[in-house]
Write a structure and sequence with these properties.
Length: about 240
């Protein structure tokens, strides 16, 4: 008898793995017009403002510049960085966990964090870095789960809260002689009028090792359970 083991290790994702190390700095007396041109030229969204002692004093985003011009209706060429910089830059270390950074951004309603090492800015972490990184990880995990489900010796079917099939593994294809291309995205009871999964969806109660005839001529022992996802029930 053979036994296969598939393991998935989820490591902590750190800021230094994702952050942008190419960032802009300017000084308190830098003209806003020059900062604006630099942001546009380098396709950046923010610039960190330093004082003469090379201490971070604030941050200016392109949105800040646009809002200042619109609200103040003044000549931006007469203003310096310190005039419109947002004081109190929120920072994290390069060894901070990415999820912690996301929570900090949400709590403070900011779109980026300065990354500090030994008191110096070494990078910037933005909302889109976190979003894009986790989209990529979700896709990777999805592929891993698909592979794992197909290695399970039993037939696996998952339906959503409307009874639509969203998972149909290879052993389900073999058992019922029904390819996934035909059933995924369709109502389960369209193919299996007596499907016990639909009962579980309604009763929200687990059924284990039950003799079942999902359609005429097919006799199986089945287990089924509801799954709660985003406060909605699904069937497995």
């Amino acid at each position: 008898m053979g036994c296969g083991i598939m393991s998935l290790v989820l490591k902590e994702i750190l800021v230094k793995d994702v952050m942008d190390k190419n960032f802009l700095i300017a000084y308190e007396d830098s003209p806003i017009s020059e900062i604006k041109e630099e942001l546009i030229r380098d396709y950046k969204k923010e610039v960190f403002i330093y004082d003469k002692a090379d201490k971070v004093q604030g941050i200016i985003t392109m949105k800040d510049i646009c809002n200042f011009v619109r609200e103040k209706e003044s000549n931006i060429n007469q203003k310096c960085a310190i005039d419109i910089a947002t004081k109190g830059v929120i920072s994290v270390s390069e060894d901070s966990d990415l999820l912690i950074c996301r929570n900090i951004m949400l709590k403070n309603n900011v779109g980026r964090l300065a990354v500090l090492k030994e008191g110096k800015i070494v990078g910037v972490i933005r909302q889109e870095h976190i979003r894009d990184f986790y989209y990529m990880k979700v896709e990777e995990t999805s592929e891993i789960l698909k592979t794992a489900i197909n290695y399970i010796h039993e037939a696996v079917c998952v339906i959503n809260n409307k009874g639509i099939v969203i998972v149909w593994n290879e052993n389900a294809e073999k058992l019922y002689n029904l390819p996934k291309e035909k059933i995924i995205g369709r109502p389960l009871d369209e193919f299996f009028p007596n499907a016990i999964n639909m009962k579980v969806l309604k009763t929200r109660k687990v059924i284990e090792n039950c003799y079942h005839e999902p359609r005429d001529g097919t006799h199986i022992v089945i287990s089924a359970a509801p799954i709660i996802l985003n406060n909605e029930f699904m069937g497995l």
